[in-house]
Specification:
The protein is built from seven helices and 34 strands. By secondary structure, the protein is α/β, with parallel strands linked by helices. The strands form nine sheets. The protein has an eight-stranded parallel beta barrel. Bound molecules: (2S,3S,4S,5R)-3,4,5-trihydroxy-6-oxo-oxane-2-carboxylic acid (GCB). (2S,3S,4S,5R)-3,4,5-trihydroxy-6-oxo-oxane-2-carboxylic acid binds next to loops.
């Protein structure tokens, strides 16, 4: 059949996208699917040295020390003989738990921003002498310099995404390896995020550390998903089209075999290059959704390597005024959160922590979470897959990043790439967000637009969004979302605080929201602060009554939302630490907009949102 011009264009674009995608992935050496691989954990107690003056890194003229310098903190801390002078040392007197932020582990670290050296000794015997060994860090906030037995393995910046380095055979020892990581969490104008955020700057090796042993040629990464739907299409559950690719690291040869035992599907593809694209059909499939978060075991093998994952199959798209999950419109009953366990004033990092946060969201009646404002630990997105929560995942391009600076752009893009690389196989993740409340200007829009182009090139199957700002008080009582960034996103999302930052909650009675873009509209934030247990009349700021009133007025206002309104993720699940919140009576370093208090108690407003969500769900069930 002859191609129409439209078909040719589509083909050209698709091939170009695939090429860009292959290139972008080729640049990154991140190993994915870590929780399902054979790994040896380096978690536990690490010894540390606090080094605010960077004595372990620079010499007394403040020049970076050379690799062999005996005073460098990455080299042995043992004096050679009794006359040898050593002015540093690692000791069990000073230990920190990994994973974990340092701020919550010792009062002296509460406000600390600077360098801490972490040290761990380990023995390692490879299972197979020809195997390769990598060290994988779930995340370190913010900059990490990693040394093994005095040799630098590499450096990474970005506090919320994973990275790994290969350990050369020439460096690895079977006994008593001396692993040192210099961690620095100083804020910087040219960093992502920048100096100003409304959250705590938790430092440290905040996520797990693993050794990953793999064959000489191994499956580094893979992507598997239902084919992107034609506009508005309901995916077939019989003969559904699956596509993706497998990326090998090493000498690529042989075949890639993809096996989905439950569906009795097994396909073999010949490897032609380091990236092997594939497509095949599933004779039948139960689609993943919040109501039925069905996951299938998928194994992928090549030569001596085999990886396994649990995959949900679903489609997602912004289509006209709606968001379609599996071809049907959905309404997102969301909640925004921080990656924090407030009762312990610390970063969340474990499955148990994820279970607490999702447990709270479930009680509230949510089907969606906004993981603000940075990528969370992998157990969050994996648990969202198995519990059936839709996920908004974001990079910390927050407020006033240095938008005109190319290096800053590269840092943002790297974090975006690492986020998407790690989580692209999670059915739960439906939105990649490129940032939050960035001030309108041409350089800002270009910066964000380029991030969107990068995100689309890495993953064309999901929606891209960003939380935009609004201006209230428009004269005609119509608050219009017209940020020029709106033209590039799939989902127009905005943060709205009418009745907290703008006037009183009664201002909601006359407000009407709309957007100049013919796209689905989402409220990515709305909220008010209240100190749990503080009761007063509803006009009194920080009382539970004020917050409850705010939610009541907001919910009444929602009745007048336009038909392209597809959901909300109010701010915020629980009170969280912020150095910017200094009211000595009500805040004391806490942002109090939580529906749960810092001790995990429900505030009055919790029940108001919960009952709103119940009503929406009931109505949806009636309409089924
Ligand atoms: C916002 C920000 C969020 C803040 C919140 C607040 O718009 O996106 O990070 O914490 O407002 O509480 O003011």
């Amino acid at each position: 059949m002859p191609y129409s011009t439209k078909q040719i264009n589509v083909t050209v674009v698709t091939v170009a996208m695939m090429l860009i995608c292959q290139l972008s992935h080729a640049q990154l050496n991140l190993i994915t699917d870590i929780p399902n691989r054979h790994t040896v954990s380096l978690d536990g107690k690490w010894q540390y040295i606090v080094d605010p003056y960077e004595t372990g890194f620079y010499d007394y003229r403040y020049k970076e020390m050379n690799e062999n310098s005996a005073s460098a903190y990455w080299n042995s801390d043992k004096p050679k003989n009794k006359s040898d002078l050593k002015e540093f040392g690692y000791s069990d007197k000073y230990t920190l738990k990994v994973p974990g932020d340092w701020n919550s582990q010792d009062p002296k670290f509460l406000y600390y921003e600077g360098t801490v050296w972490y040290k761990k000794s380990f023995d390692y015997q490879k299972h197979n002498p020809s195997d390769r060994l990598f060290i994988y860090f779930g995340a370190i906030n913010y900059r990490a310099d990693v040394y093994l037995n005095g040799k630098k393995l590499g450096m990474h910046v970005g506090g919320f995404t994973p990275f790994n380095f290969e350990i050369p055979d020439s460096v690895l020892k079977t006994k008593d390896n001396f692993l040192v990581v210099r961690v620095n969490n100083e804020r910087g104008k040219e960093e992502v995020p920048t100096v100003n955020t409304d959250w705590w700057n938790y430092g440290g090796i905040t996520r797990s550390v693993d050794l990953v042993e793999v064959p000489k040629t191994f499956i580094q990464d893979f992507s598997i998903h239902l084919k992107k739907p034609e506009a508005g299409e309901v995916p077939a559950t019989k003969n559904a089209e699956v596509e993706g690719w497998v990326k090998l690291n090493g000498q690529s040869s042989g075949n890639v075999v993809i096996d989905i035992p439950e569906l009795k599907v097994k396909n073999t593809f010949q490897v032609t290059d380091s990236i092997t694209p594939f497509s095949f059909q599933l004779p039948q499939v139960k689609l993943w959704s919040p109501e039925n978060p069905k996951l299938y075991k998928v194994t992928i093998s090549n030569g001596d390597d085999k990886v396994e994952d649990k995959i949900g199959f679903r489609t997602i798209e912004a289509f006209g005024k709606k968001v379609l999950l599996n071809g049907k419109p959905i309404f997102m009953r969301g909640i925004a959160m921080h990656e924090e366990i407030p009762q312990q004033m610390r970063r969340a990092y474990s499955k148990k922590d994820a279970a607490q946060l999702f447990g709270w969201a479930k009680e509230l009646g949510c089907n969606m979470v906004r993981l603000a404002h940075y990528p969370y630990e992998e157990s969050m997105t994996r648990m969202a897959d198995s519990l059936g929560f839709l996920v908004w995942s974001e990079i910390p391009v927050y407020w006033t990043i240095d938008f005109g600076n190319h290096e800053v752009y590269e840092k943002a893009k790297q974090q975006l790439t690492e986020m998407i690389t790690r989580d692209k196989n999670r059915a739960a993740v439906i939105i990649w967000s490129v940032g939050n409340e960035t001030p309108v200007s041409q350089v800002r829009t270009d910066f964000m637009h380029n991030l969107i182009i990068s995100a689309k090139a890495l993953d064309s199957t999901r929606m891209i969004s960003a939380a935009l700002e609004v201006n209230y008080n428009s004269k005609n009582k119509m608050d219009v979302i017209n940020d020029p960034l709106g033209q590039y996103v799939d989902l127009v999302a905005f943060n709205e605080y009418l009745g907290w930052y703008g006037g009183l909650p009664s201002a909601c009675r006359t407000a009407n929201w709309s957007t100049v873009y013919d796209k689905p509209l989402f409220i990515s934030e709305t909220g008010a602060g209240a100190k749990y247990g503080f009761h007063a009349d509803s006009l009194t700021r920080f009382s539970e009554e004020y917050q409850a009133w705010y939610y009541r007025e907001q919910i009444n206002m929602f009745k007048r939302m336009p038909e392209n309104w597809v959901g909300l993720s109010p701010w915020v699940l629980a009170d969280f630490r912020s150095p910017k919140r200094n009211n000595p009576i009500y805040q004391e370093g806490w942002n109090r907009k939580g529906l749960f208090s810092n001790n995990g108690n429900k505030k009055e407003a919790f029940y108001i949102l919960q009952s709103f969500y119940k009503k929406i769900k009931k109505k949806e069930n009636l309409n089924k």
